[in-house]
Amino acid sequence: MYRDEQGILREADGAIAWGFIGQYREKNPALYEEFIYPTYEHGERVEYWGGKVAAWADENRMDIEDAAKVIAFVPEELRKEAIENAYLHVAVKAAQDGGDLPDMGAVFPLAVAGSIKRMGKATGKVTQTSEPNGGKSGLVQGAEGTGDIPKRTYEPSPKHDPKSGWGSPNPISDAETGQKLLDTAYSSSKNKQLYNIYEGKLIKFQPDGETGWHPYEVTNPAKEVPADVLRQLLKDGKITKVEYNKLLKNK
Questions:
Q1: How far apart are CA 68 and CA 55, in angstroms?
Q2: Domain boundaries, the chain
Q3: Does this model's pTM top 0.85?
Q4: What is the mean pLDDT of each run of 10 residues along the chain (251 residues)?
Q5: Is the dihedral of CA 123, 128, 131, 132 positive or negative?
């Protein structure tokens, strides 16, 4: 095993040492973060640091704008995007804590929540709406409580190319199919990713910047897919009860 020039742990054959890295998720989260971070793409790093900024601001009883003036732990090249992303973390938490955001589980599209990242400073009211493409409830935020739902854009990553990539493969055959899966994807109140089913395989969509999303196949459903997403897939008839139980136990 060795670290490449990007700091990614790899097996002798060059494959990323996912198994070695994954064993530390539970027993040593700090070490797991150290190992997993180099594998993150740009959008994932923005999400990571956005969460760190939001947590730090909450711990120190500061809003994001004030926290941004003093924090120094975010890499300079990601600072602007991470600060903007932190507003999303705070907005979602505030909406949940305040009761404006009910526990809708998998039917809450956090992609839509990108439009409320400055909710902490906005004066408009948070309102529920529906997405025309999937009929799933969401949140939009505008000066008067209205706003446009951001368009999601399917953008596959070379990292997950089945033939030449080095991450979990993306099994989606073409861009049109990928866009349809993204438009009808499920989301969770637990994280920022989106999920769907394609040819019996669970697909995870990771956000890249404002509207881009890249997909790859889930290899460990029990750890990678929140239970509320699996429950919604079961409710909608996307998976059977037997499949649901197996996915929960990663069988």
A1: 12
A2: 43-140, 151-251
A3: no
A4: 89 86 86 89 86 87 84 89 83 58 39 38 32 32 38 87 83 93 88 90 86 89 87 89 86 68
A5: negative
